[in-house]
Design a protein that fits this description.
With 367 residues, the chain is α+β, with helices and mostly antiparallel strands. Helices cover 23% and strands 30% of the residues. A 6-stranded antiparallel beta barrel has the order 3-4-5-8-7-6. A 4-stranded antiparallel beta sheet has the order 2-9-13-12. A 3-stranded mixed beta sheet has the order 16-15-23, with helices on one face.
Length: 367
């Protein structure tokens, strides 16, 4: 037993011991070796023609408690006069309505979901004052036609909106919402097949020439279908991939689209980025964002990265990990600034300065 103990000690010393222990832990814990992450095309693309659309119209909100536009806003008076004429109660001139302070001219919008909407469906609508109204609280939207976005010269009415308004934000009483206030009068669908072709649109986080080319190549290799000797898919630019619908699927394009969107693909790399919300002061950093050698002086804070960085004589100094002198992690910089209690707005200004200097090795997104 003593001999075996010595033998084991001689075998499992130094790096051999660490490697053996590491392999043993992987086996015990069931941890698999890293594998290439996979996703599906529908996780990084959308189908052109399957996006939200907006219906819009101009209408009147009535029943206000003296908080409407009043006679000073002539477009409201003209709209009210026209409405009364259509209802068989004409007025001689808009001036007759100068004391109508319980009416407001509004813009009405409703969002049609990506899948479209059918006749009889009800959608929420948003009502916003465009005149001099002080508040829409307690008002009711009068019957208002909503048109589509296709042709402004020849608008087509798709829905009608009406109902009692709800003010969701008391700080903005001139904007209200009507739950289910928009009733579809016609079907609204956007075609997704045009000239026997569909178009895949990469989401903004993955829009890249290489990614678009990879998606097209992956579709061609997975589906193994050609039309007149040509592959199905081709990248048009960094965001759009055009895919031809094979003849055997033209009577059932939905089946073809479902197969294309479900095609597995290796997860494309995402460009390192920093997302900053200047209003709230929040900063979201992807873990791989780095910064090159740079010196930033902001108020009484000095930031220096790169070889030879040393604390200055005065002011606050934010040190970083010396092992990352050439390409320091931005996360380490933000943590160091937080450690010396630098305000969020000052940190944001420092990030902007690093980005303008070309030393931020990632994309800065300001919201």
């Amino acid at each position: 037993m003593k001999y075996l103990g010595k033998r084991r000690e001689s075998l499992f010393t130094g790096w051999n011991q660490k490697l053996w222990v590491g392999l043993w832990l992987l086996a015990v814990l069931g941890i698999a070796w890293p594998a290439e992450a996979k996703t599906t095309i529908k996780s990084i693309c959308r189908l052109k023609g399957q996006e939200e659309n907006t219906l819009h119209g101009m209408g009147l909100v009535v029943g206000l408690k003296g908080t409407g536009d009043g006679g000073s806003f002539l477009p409201t008076m003209r709209s009210l006069a026209m409405t009364m004429q259509l209802m068989g109660k004409p007025v001689q001139a808009p001036a007759e309505l100068k004391d109508a302070k319980n009416v407001a001219l509004v813009l009405v919008t409703a969002i049609v979901p990506p899948g479209g909407a059918r006749q009889g469906d009800r959608l929420d609508c948003v009502v916003s004052s465009v005149g001099a109204a002080k508040s829409l609280k307690g008002g009711r939207l009068f019957f208002t036609p909503l048109v589509g976005p296709e042709n402004p010269q020849h608008p087509r009415v798709y829905a009608f909106a009406e109902g009692l308004l709800t003010i969701e934000d008391e700080a903005t009483p001139t904007v209200g919402k009507i739950a289910g206030g928009c009733r579809m009068e016609e079907d609204f669908f956007t075609p997704f097949v045009k000239d026997d072709r569909i178009t895949l649109v990469l989401d903004p986080n993955h829009a890249d020439f290489q990614t678009a080319s990879d998606v097209a190549e992956w579709i061609n290799s997975q589906m193994s279908i050609q039309i007149e000797g040509q592959p199905l898919a081709r990248a048009i630019n960094q965001q759009n991939i055009e895919v031809r619908v094979p003849p055997q699927y033209r009577d059932d394009p939905v089946l073809f689209v479902s197969q294309v969107l479900a095609t597995p693909i290796l997860s494309p790399p995402v460009q390192p980025r920093v997302v900053v919300n200047e209003r709230t002061g929040s900063i979201v950093i992807s873990g791989d964002v780095e910064i090159g050698p740079v010196v930033v002086t902001h108020k009484n804070v000095v930031v220096e990265t790169g070889p030879g960085a040393a604390a200055p004589a005065g002011g606050r100094f934010a040190p970083l990990d010396p092992e990352q002198a050439q390409t320091a992690k931005l996360k380490a910089l933000v943590e160091a600034l937080n450690a010396v209690h630098v305000p969020p707005q000052d940190i944001i200004d420092i990030l902007k300065g690093i980005d303008r200097n070309g030393k931020l090795q990632g994309k800065l997104i300001l919201q």
